[in-house]
Amino acid sequence: MHVVVVAAVIERDNRFLLTRRQDGVHLAGHWEFPGGKVGPGESHAQALRREIVEELDANVAVGDLVLETTHAYPERTVTLFFYRCDLLGMPRPMLGQQMEWVARRDLSSLPFPPADERLIRMLMAG
Description:
This protein has helices at about 45-55, 115-125; strands at about 1-10, 15-20, 30, 35, 60-70, 75-90, 100-105. By secondary structure, the chain is of the alpha+beta class.
């Protein structure tokens, strides 16, 4: 199975908006950049705006592509598209997930899905 996922890299005051994957889902307990699967007929920007509204009850202005990467997990292959986004409004977790603004220097201390490793290295390097 191959899944296409979009994620928002939202930065404010040298901190990134992250959410934690909930119990019962693939990679539960890992931190991630908010986003989700691209639906049939959706552009990346449409999917990202929809996902952020669903997850965080906020809108985003979708900017430039930061990174495209593919990772093969045992049960699926994921192609991730990370976009720099500007948050429009105050986010609030709508699905019971944990949400944090995490300083750039602290990113490497958190558990992220393996597919995010290259992005974390890029962000840590500035």
